[in-house]
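Input.
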Amino acid sequence: MARRLAVGQGAFFIAAGLWPIVHLPSFEAVTGPKLEGWLVKTVGALIAVAGLALAVAGKRQRPGLETAVLGAGMSGALAAIDMWYAGRRRRIHPIYLADAAVEIGLAGAWAAALPGLRAPPDPDASRAALG
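Output.
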């Protein structure tokens, strides 16, 4: 489950992050006008990089705790921003509340995947093997 989650979230983040970089006008048509295009593109690039890290982790190995922290942490942070600025403050387009719902679902999926994550290496076993 964790591998598919990492790859799926990674693909979602790559697409979502690259969208404003590739075509800012269509991004703004859905999410509302932006004052600072460079900032939207910068945040998009960071989201895409996080997505690439998640996708690589999911493809290469059984994801560990660090992958879950990245996936759940990114989703939690984005959901909190979406809810604060689209919900409470009403500073950004309400479509971001739909993104918040997706992000909360991803964070919840990581919580459900925790029992199946790769266990961290046992430092005592490594020392014993070295003698």
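The chain has one domain: 2-114.
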